[in-house]
Write a structure and sequence with these properties.
Keywords: Kinase, Transcription, Transcription regulation, Transferase. The protein is of the alpha+beta class and 258 residues long. The chain has helices at 15-28, 33-48, 72-84, 88-95, 111-119, 154-208, 212-226, 230-242; strands spanning 53-60, 66-69, 99-101, 124-130, 138-146. A five-stranded antiparallel sheet has the order 2-1-5-4-3, sandwiched between helices. It starts with 14 loop residues before the first helix and ends in a 16-residue tail after the last helix.
Length: 258
Protein backbone atom coordinates (compact mmCIF):
# COMPACT_ATOMS: atom_id res chain seq x y z
CA UNK A 1 0.00 0.00 0.00
CA UNK A 2 1.18 3.55 -0.63
CA UNK A 3 3.41 5.10 2.03
CA UNK A 4 4.00 8.61 0.72
CA UNK A 5 1.72 11.54 1.43
CA UNK A 6 0.77 14.97 0.18
CA UNK A 7 -0.27 18.12 1.98
CA UNK A 8 -3.61 17.91 3.69
CA UNK A 9 -3.83 14.14 3.23
CA UNK A 10 -4.03 13.11 6.91
CA UNK A 11 -7.37 11.52 7.82
CA UNK A 12 -9.20 12.98 10.80
CA UNK A 13 -8.87 10.77 13.94
CA UNK A 14 -12.63 10.67 14.51
CA UNK A 15 -13.54 9.97 10.88
CA UNK A 16 -15.29 6.70 11.61
CA UNK A 17 -17.70 7.89 14.28
CA UNK A 18 -18.83 10.84 12.20
CA UNK A 19 -19.09 8.87 8.96
CA UNK A 20 -20.94 5.97 10.57
CA UNK A 21 -23.26 8.36 12.36
CA UNK A 22 -24.19 9.98 9.05
CA UNK A 23 -24.81 6.60 7.40
CA UNK A 24 -26.99 5.42 10.28
CA UNK A 25 -28.99 8.65 10.23
CA UNK A 26 -29.61 8.34 6.50
CA UNK A 27 -30.69 4.71 6.83
CA UNK A 28 -33.02 5.60 9.70
CA UNK A 29 -34.57 8.29 7.50
CA UNK A 30 -35.03 5.71 4.70
CA UNK A 31 -33.62 8.03 2.05
CA UNK A 32 -33.52 6.77 -1.57
CA UNK A 33 -30.39 4.97 -2.72
CA UNK A 34 -29.34 7.89 -4.96
CA UNK A 35 -29.50 10.32 -2.02
CA UNK A 36 -27.46 7.90 0.09
CA UNK A 37 -24.83 7.67 -2.66
CA UNK A 38 -24.59 11.47 -2.82
CA UNK A 39 -23.96 11.62 0.92
CA UNK A 40 -21.39 8.81 0.73
CA UNK A 41 -19.39 10.42 -2.05
CA UNK A 42 -19.31 13.81 -0.29
CA UNK A 43 -18.07 12.17 2.91
CA UNK A 44 -15.43 10.20 0.99
CA UNK A 45 -14.09 13.42 -0.55
CA UNK A 46 -13.93 15.03 2.89
CA UNK A 47 -12.05 12.05 4.34
CA UNK A 48 -9.57 12.12 1.46
CA UNK A 49 -8.50 15.71 2.11
CA UNK A 50 -9.42 19.35 1.46
CA UNK A 51 -8.29 19.28 -2.18
CA UNK A 52 -9.78 15.88 -3.04
CA UNK A 53 -12.77 14.96 -5.17
CA UNK A 54 -14.58 11.63 -5.26
CA UNK A 55 -16.87 9.57 -7.45
CA UNK A 56 -18.71 6.37 -6.63
CA UNK A 57 -19.87 3.52 -8.86
CA UNK A 58 -22.34 0.82 -7.82
CA UNK A 59 -23.47 -2.35 -9.52
CA UNK A 60 -26.27 -4.04 -7.61
CA UNK A 61 -27.66 -7.45 -8.51
CA UNK A 62 -26.68 -7.06 -12.15
CA UNK A 63 -28.72 -3.85 -12.42
CA UNK A 64 -27.60 -0.70 -14.22
CA UNK A 65 -24.63 1.16 -12.78
CA UNK A 66 -25.39 4.16 -10.60
CA UNK A 67 -22.84 7.00 -10.45
CA UNK A 68 -22.53 9.82 -7.93
CA UNK A 69 -19.78 12.43 -7.62
CA UNK A 70 -18.73 15.13 -5.18
CA UNK A 71 -18.30 17.67 -7.98
CA UNK A 72 -18.66 18.02 -11.74
CA UNK A 73 -14.97 17.41 -12.46
CA UNK A 74 -15.09 14.01 -10.77
CA UNK A 75 -18.40 13.29 -12.50
CA UNK A 76 -16.79 13.99 -15.88
CA UNK A 77 -14.02 11.50 -15.15
CA UNK A 78 -16.47 8.86 -13.99
CA UNK A 79 -18.68 9.33 -17.05
CA UNK A 80 -15.64 8.80 -19.29
CA UNK A 81 -14.86 5.62 -17.39
CA UNK A 82 -18.44 4.38 -17.74
CA UNK A 83 -18.50 5.19 -21.47
CA UNK A 84 -15.26 3.30 -22.05
CA UNK A 85 -16.39 0.39 -19.89
CA UNK A 86 -13.07 0.32 -18.05
CA UNK A 87 -11.07 2.37 -15.59
CA UNK A 88 -9.69 2.23 -12.05
CA UNK A 89 -13.07 2.37 -10.29
CA UNK A 90 -14.60 -0.42 -12.39
CA UNK A 91 -11.39 -2.42 -12.11
CA UNK A 92 -11.29 -2.04 -8.32
CA UNK A 93 -14.91 -3.19 -8.05
CA UNK A 94 -14.22 -6.12 -10.35
CA UNK A 95 -11.04 -7.45 -8.70
CA UNK A 96 -11.95 -6.25 -5.17
CA UNK A 97 -8.64 -4.61 -4.38
CA UNK A 98 -7.18 -1.13 -4.04
CA UNK A 99 -5.86 0.48 -7.22
CA UNK A 100 -3.71 3.61 -7.08
CA UNK A 101 -2.64 5.91 -9.90
CA UNK A 102 0.11 8.15 -8.44
CA UNK A 103 0.71 9.92 -11.76
CA UNK A 104 -2.22 9.86 -14.19
CA UNK A 105 -0.18 11.31 -17.07
CA UNK A 106 2.47 8.60 -16.77
CA UNK A 107 0.05 5.68 -16.41
CA UNK A 108 -0.63 3.89 -19.73
CA UNK A 109 -3.84 2.19 -18.57
CA UNK A 110 -7.40 3.29 -19.40
CA UNK A 111 -6.71 5.86 -22.13
CA UNK A 112 -10.20 7.40 -22.26
CA UNK A 113 -10.36 7.81 -18.50
CA UNK A 114 -6.78 9.16 -18.38
CA UNK A 115 -7.49 11.84 -20.98
CA UNK A 116 -10.68 12.95 -19.23
CA UNK A 117 -8.95 12.98 -15.83
CA UNK A 118 -6.06 15.10 -17.05
CA UNK A 119 -8.46 17.47 -18.80
CA UNK A 120 -10.33 17.85 -15.51
CA UNK A 121 -7.12 18.96 -13.81
CA UNK A 122 -6.37 15.87 -11.73
CA UNK A 123 -2.86 14.48 -11.39
CA UNK A 124 -3.41 11.37 -9.29
CA UNK A 125 -6.22 9.02 -8.35
CA UNK A 126 -7.08 5.99 -6.24
CA UNK A 127 -9.93 3.48 -6.43
CA UNK A 128 -11.14 1.62 -3.36
CA UNK A 129 -13.60 -1.30 -3.52
CA UNK A 130 -16.30 -2.06 -0.97
CA UNK A 131 -17.58 -5.39 0.26
CA UNK A 132 -21.24 -5.98 1.09
CA UNK A 133 -22.55 -8.89 3.14
CA UNK A 134 -25.88 -10.63 3.77
CA UNK A 135 -26.08 -12.18 0.32
CA UNK A 136 -26.37 -8.86 -1.53
CA UNK A 137 -24.77 -8.91 -4.98
CA UNK A 138 -23.07 -5.53 -4.81
CA UNK A 139 -19.99 -4.12 -6.53
CA UNK A 140 -19.09 -0.69 -5.19
CA UNK A 141 -15.93 1.35 -5.55
CA UNK A 142 -14.94 4.90 -4.72
CA UNK A 143 -12.64 6.90 -7.00
CA UNK A 144 -10.53 9.56 -5.29
CA UNK A 145 -8.96 12.40 -7.28
CA UNK A 146 -6.54 15.22 -6.47
CA UNK A 147 -4.60 17.78 -8.46
CA UNK A 148 -1.11 16.80 -7.30
CA UNK A 149 0.86 13.70 -8.18
CA UNK A 150 2.50 11.18 -5.85
CA UNK A 151 1.51 8.33 -3.61
CA UNK A 152 -1.57 8.63 -1.43
CA UNK A 153 -1.02 8.56 2.32
CA UNK A 154 -1.68 5.08 3.69
CA UNK A 155 -3.86 6.47 6.51
CA UNK A 156 -6.13 8.16 3.98
CA UNK A 157 -6.48 5.00 1.90
CA UNK A 158 -7.08 2.87 4.98
CA UNK A 159 -9.68 5.28 6.33
CA UNK A 160 -11.58 5.69 3.07
CA UNK A 161 -11.30 1.94 2.47
CA UNK A 162 -12.98 1.15 5.77
CA UNK A 163 -15.61 3.78 5.04
CA UNK A 164 -16.19 2.21 1.61
CA UNK A 165 -16.96 -1.12 3.29
CA UNK A 166 -19.40 0.59 5.68
CA UNK A 167 -20.93 2.45 2.74
CA UNK A 168 -21.32 -0.74 0.74
CA UNK A 169 -23.28 -2.36 3.54
CA UNK A 170 -25.42 0.77 3.91
CA UNK A 171 -26.22 0.84 0.18
CA UNK A 172 -27.15 -2.85 0.31
CA UNK A 173 -29.53 -2.22 3.21
CA UNK A 174 -31.08 0.79 1.48
CA UNK A 175 -31.47 -1.10 -1.80
CA UNK A 176 -33.16 -3.99 -0.02
CA UNK A 177 -35.54 -1.56 1.71
CA UNK A 178 -36.36 0.09 -1.64
CA UNK A 179 -37.09 -3.30 -3.17
CA UNK A 180 -39.35 -4.21 -0.25
CA UNK A 181 -41.14 -0.89 -0.64
CA UNK A 182 -41.76 -1.70 -4.31
CA UNK A 183 -43.12 -5.13 -3.37
CA UNK A 184 -45.42 -3.55 -0.78
CA UNK A 185 -46.64 -1.02 -3.34
CA UNK A 186 -47.38 -3.82 -5.81
CA UNK A 187 -49.30 -5.72 -3.13
CA UNK A 188 -51.33 -2.63 -2.26
CA UNK A 189 -52.14 -2.07 -5.92
CA UNK A 190 -53.15 -5.72 -6.37
CA UNK A 191 -55.42 -5.63 -3.33
CA UNK A 192 -57.03 -2.39 -4.46
CA UNK A 193 -57.66 -3.86 -7.92
CA UNK A 194 -59.16 -7.01 -6.41
CA UNK A 195 -61.50 -4.94 -4.22
CA UNK A 196 -62.75 -2.94 -7.21
CA UNK A 197 -63.32 -6.11 -9.23
CA UNK A 198 -65.27 -7.63 -6.33
CA UNK A 199 -67.50 -4.55 -6.20
CA UNK A 200 -68.11 -4.76 -9.96
CA UNK A 201 -68.90 -8.47 -9.72
CA UNK A 202 -71.62 -7.66 -7.23
CA UNK A 203 -73.13 -5.19 -9.66
CA UNK A 204 -72.96 -7.64 -12.60
CA UNK A 205 -74.49 -10.43 -10.49
CA UNK A 206 -77.40 -8.17 -9.50
CA UNK A 207 -77.98 -6.91 -13.03
CA UNK A 208 -77.77 -10.33 -14.70
CA UNK A 209 -79.14 -12.42 -11.83
CA UNK A 210 -76.21 -14.79 -12.09
CA UNK A 211 -73.57 -16.36 -9.88
CA UNK A 212 -70.02 -15.13 -9.29
CA UNK A 213 -68.41 -17.37 -11.92
CA UNK A 214 -70.72 -16.17 -14.70
CA UNK A 215 -70.32 -12.57 -13.54
CA UNK A 216 -66.53 -12.93 -13.69
CA UNK A 217 -66.79 -14.38 -17.21
CA UNK A 218 -68.93 -11.40 -18.28
CA UNK A 219 -66.41 -8.97 -16.81
CA UNK A 220 -63.50 -10.76 -18.45
CA UNK A 221 -65.19 -10.72 -21.88
CA UNK A 222 -65.85 -7.01 -21.53
CA UNK A 223 -62.20 -6.47 -20.67
CA UNK A 224 -61.02 -8.49 -23.68
CA UNK A 225 -63.48 -6.89 -26.10
CA UNK A 226 -62.40 -3.40 -25.08
CA UNK A 227 -58.71 -4.32 -24.80
CA UNK A 228 -58.70 -2.80 -21.33
CA UNK A 229 -57.57 -3.97 -17.92
CA UNK A 230 -60.24 -5.76 -15.94
CA UNK A 231 -59.73 -3.33 -13.05
CA UNK A 232 -60.45 -0.35 -15.32
CA UNK A 233 -63.61 -1.96 -16.68
CA UNK A 234 -64.69 -2.81 -13.14
CA UNK A 235 -64.04 0.76 -11.99
CA UNK A 236 -66.22 2.14 -14.78
CA UNK A 237 -69.07 -0.20 -13.81
CA UNK A 238 -68.90 0.77 -10.14
CA UNK A 239 -68.63 4.49 -10.95
CA UNK A 240 -71.57 4.34 -13.35
CA UNK A 241 -73.80 2.67 -10.75
CA UNK A 242 -72.69 4.51 -7.60
CA UNK A 243 -71.81 7.88 -9.09
CA UNK A 244 -68.49 7.88 -7.22
CA UNK A 245 -65.09 6.36 -7.88
CA UNK A 246 -64.55 2.94 -6.25
CA UNK A 247 -62.34 2.56 -3.21
CA UNK A 248 -60.72 -0.34 -1.41
CA UNK A 249 -62.39 -1.16 1.92
CA UNK A 250 -59.39 -3.24 2.98
CA UNK A 251 -56.52 -0.93 2.21
CA UNK A 252 -53.03 -1.99 3.26
CA UNK A 253 -51.70 0.17 6.07
CA UNK A 254 -48.08 0.33 7.15
CA UNK A 255 -47.46 -0.71 10.71
CA UNK A 256 -46.44 2.04 13.12
CA UNK A 257 -42.71 2.56 13.19
CA UNK A 258 -42.19 1.35 9.61
Amino acid sequence: MATGHGAGQEAAPDWRSGALGELHALLAATVPVDALLDAIVRRAATLAGPDASAAITVRLGGQATVVAASDERAATCDRAEQAAGDGPCLEAARVERLITVPDVAADPRWREWREATLAAGFGSAAALPARAEDGIQLDLAINLYRAGTGEWHEDVLAGVGRFADDAGRAVAVAARAEEQARVNADLKQAMAARAVIDQALGVVMAQNRCGPEEAFAILRRASQNRNAKMRDVAAEIVTRISGTEPHSPHEFRDRPGR
